[in-house]
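TA notes, week 10

Several of you asked for a full example with nothing omitted. So below is the full record: structure tokens for the whole chain, then the designed sequence directly under it. When grading your own attempts, check the secondary structure regions first.
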């Protein structure tokens, strides 16, 4: 009981240092579990959704899925299901694009009902509608909806509303952020199709690897294209989002934990070392070494345990909810829940065990001494004269610098921990600001350096060439063609985009370093990131085809260009014709602001709307960056203040001696500030390359469609420096005030 009272009294007396221990444990676990909980929530929720709806392993596309082809394919699949997938226009004022699925069995990639009746294969009058589209159009169960496709018009009653695993992300033709009033999907029974149905998509499940399955497919039947699960637009986009969050969740919190642990190690060692006289008294009055060790182990144990448990609970509860509002603007899942992983408990347990280990070894070393020696102050560290002291430069240094040099030399571990702590905080700041700079640079690259148009008009699929030419002339625009393609090279296969330009300067090209380049009418240019994925360069041969066509084109790459948002091939309309392919315009770009409506134009997007969509798309990552900057600054405050207090405690007698010798309070504050600034400067310099490395790791995990160039600007470094040195100076001023109020008798009486 008496030792428990002593522990509570010691905590009260040294509350600042013990509060910092609690905060470091809490912040480290809170950040780790919160950020990783957001990622694991995405992973677990999507995995459960995919599993519950039995998402297909692959999709085989053809004009018609024949029974003979199905028999061949079923020889190397575990399950398959035919669907007819067609593009329709909904009967609304904005003519939304609605993808219709006429389902044979609803056993693979099943429709997930959130409202209304379960999906019914026997129902030929009902439709099960996309919830995001239904909400945007204010539709409910029981309403009627009409669809027009291929010259056919059908009207159905909405029997259910829900989600599909194939549409977690819905690609919009006009924006990277889907507008759910303009796009949607619907599922119906095959019996709802008004005429004899001919299926054009086969959903498959298989046990082989996707490459082995595709090889078997190539050897068995003719088909237009095959898409494996990881290459499906929705799955790939959501996986890329999760990959970015995972990398940030893996890098930032781990650095956070390491800095926290190192500072905790220093703090616990110094606190126990400061109690050596009390340890001697306890030994003298009969307490056993084991009892004393357990007593001091409890100091850090209870505080670190409380901080770790609180962080373990609050992290996954608070941080993920900060991201979900921005995530739900782009992605559609039935529910959004933070995730949990056993690693959270493991890291928290390691933090607690580490505090016990640090306390044990610190108390054990002191308890080995006999009571008489333990009750005496520990002999100060002896520092012999080294090369620096013997050099001519030494005599030219001020007393301030010489004193701080020798103090750091005597207390190498404390100096190292201060530098490492600052280095970790700077690395977090530099990488976080660098990610923000890279995002802004990517936006500038795409929408200022490459895109010079004011408006982009999406051409309606039913528009005639005469109508398209008429609109093009009226808006003084240029026609372009954008199509999804598949590319093969060096045994690699990727899904990409084809951009065909028609003699326009409204879209320009750059190299990978953002320098302008000119492509001739005969060039076939491959984007830098796609070239890296395919392992090809200028002069290498690639094969590609437009998805939906079985005409494969073999050609040589004549140029490599840099493209931040869309990876694939760029060529001219003349070159496309040389390859025996027709130039079919899909959009019109113009330098004019277009507000008029045209029958042949599906929709119009301005460059400002595209930039706004980009900002919305990156808002979740920027939110994560902002949160981590906040925690990095908070950690820097705790680390620097804690180390400052410990430093002052260790040199308290030296400070008192200097005051006796006539040094003024201002001189002594300058003495401590100099040491703090030197350690901060060393940590800052070392933290810059570490921060750039962390940023590069996260940029490399951006996915296949985005091409980032890690950006380390002078502004980034300057802002990190301002934050770091401001925190260092303010913290130093806070604890250096103790110099003025120092109890001289108390500080010097240890020498009795």
């Amino acid at each position: 009981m008496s030792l428990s009272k002593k522990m509570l009294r010691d905590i009260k007396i040294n509350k600042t240092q013990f509060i910092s221990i609690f905060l470091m444990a809490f912040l480290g676990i809170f950040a780790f579990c919160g950020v990783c909980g957001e990622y694991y929530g995405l992973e677990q929720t999507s995995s459960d959704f995919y599993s519950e709806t039995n998402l297909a392993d692959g999709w085989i596309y053809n004009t018609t899925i024949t029974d003979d082809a199905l028999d061949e394919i079923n020889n190397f699949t575990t399950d398959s299901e035919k669907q007819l997938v067609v593009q329709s226009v909904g009967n609304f004022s904005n003519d939304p694009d609605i993808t219709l699925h006429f389902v044979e069995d609803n056993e693979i990639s099943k429709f997930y009902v959130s409202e209304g009746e379960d999906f019914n294969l026997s129902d030929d009058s009902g439709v099960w509608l996309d919830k995001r589209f239904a909400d945007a159009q204010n539709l409910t169960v029981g309403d009627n909806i009409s669809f027009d496709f291929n010259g056919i018009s059908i009207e159905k009653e909405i029997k259910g509303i829900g989600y599909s695993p194939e549409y977690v992300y819905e690609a919009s033709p006009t924006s990277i952020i889907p507008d759910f009033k303009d796009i949607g999907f619907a599922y119906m029974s095959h019996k709802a199709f008004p005429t004899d149905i001919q299926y054009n998509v086969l959903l498959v499940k298989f046990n082989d690897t996707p490459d082995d399955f595709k090889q078997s497919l190539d050897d068995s039947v003719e088909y237009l294209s095959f898409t494996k699960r990881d290459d499906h637009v929705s799955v790939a986009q959501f996986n890329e989002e999760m990959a970015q969050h995972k990398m940030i969740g893996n890098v930032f919190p781990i650095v956070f934990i390491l800095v926290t642990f190192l500072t905790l190690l220093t703090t616990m060692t110094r606190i126990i070392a400061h109690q050596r006289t009390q340890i001697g008294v306890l030994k003298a009055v009969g307490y056993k070494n084991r009892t004393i060790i357990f007593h001091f182990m409890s100091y850090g144990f209870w505080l670190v345990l409380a901080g770790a448990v609180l962080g373990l609970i609050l992290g996954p509860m608070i941080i993920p909810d900060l991201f979900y509002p921005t995530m739900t603007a782009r992605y559609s899942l039935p529910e959004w829940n933070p995730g949990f992983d056993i690693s959270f408990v493991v890291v928290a347990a390691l933090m607690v065990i580490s505090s016990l280990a640090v306390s044990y070894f610190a108390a054990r070393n002191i308890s080995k001494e006999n009571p008489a020696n333990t009750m005496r102050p520990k002999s100060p560290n002896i520092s012999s004269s080294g090369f620096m002291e013997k050099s001519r430069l030494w005599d030219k240094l001020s007393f301030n610098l010489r004193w701080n040099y020798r103090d750091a030399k005597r207390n190498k571990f404390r100096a190292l921990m201060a530098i490492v702590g600052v280095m970790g905080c700077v690395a977090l700041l530099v990488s976080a600001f660098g990610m923000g700079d890279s995002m802004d640079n990517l936006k500038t690259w795409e929408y200022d350096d490459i895109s010079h148009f004011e408006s982009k008009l999406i051409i309606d699929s039913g528009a005639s060439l005469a109508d398209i030419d008429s609109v093009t002339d009226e808006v003084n625009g240029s026609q372009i063609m954008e199509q999804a393609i598949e590319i093969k090279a060096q045994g690699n296969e990727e899904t990409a985009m084809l951009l065909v330009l028609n003699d326009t300067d409204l879209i320009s090209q750059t190299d990978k370093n953002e320098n302008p380049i000119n492509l001739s009418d005969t060039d076939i240019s491959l984007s830098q990131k796609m070239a890296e994925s395919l392992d090809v360069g200028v002069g290498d041969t690639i094969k590609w085809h437009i998805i939906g066509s079985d005409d494969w084109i073999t050609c040589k790459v004549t140029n490599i260009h840099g493209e931040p948002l869309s990876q694939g091939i760029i060529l001219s309309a003349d070159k496309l014709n040389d390859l025996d392919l027709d130039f079919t315009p899909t959009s019109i770009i113009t330098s004019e602001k277009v507000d008029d409506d045209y029958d042949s134009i599906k929709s119009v997007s301005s460059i400002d709307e595209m930039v706004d969509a980009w900002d919305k798309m990156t808002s979740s990552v920027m939110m994560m960056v902002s949160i981590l900057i906040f925690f990095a600054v908070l950690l820097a405050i705790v680390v620097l203040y804690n180390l400052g207090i410990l430093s002052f405690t260790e040199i308290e007698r030296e400070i008192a001696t200097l005051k006796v010798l006539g040094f003024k309070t201002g001189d002594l504050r300058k003495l401590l500030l100099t040491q703090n600034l030197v350690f901060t400067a060393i940590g800052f310099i070392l933290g810059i390359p570490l921060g750039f490395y962390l940023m590069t790791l996260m940029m490399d995990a951006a996915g296949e469609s985005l091409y980032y160039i890690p950006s380390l600007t002078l502004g980034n470094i300057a802002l990190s420096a301002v934050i770091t040195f401001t925190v260092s100076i303010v913290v130093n001023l806070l604890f250096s005030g103790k110099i003025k109020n120092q109890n001289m008798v108390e500080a010097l009486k240890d020498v009795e």
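The chain is about 55% helix and 15% strand. Use that as a sanity check on your answer.
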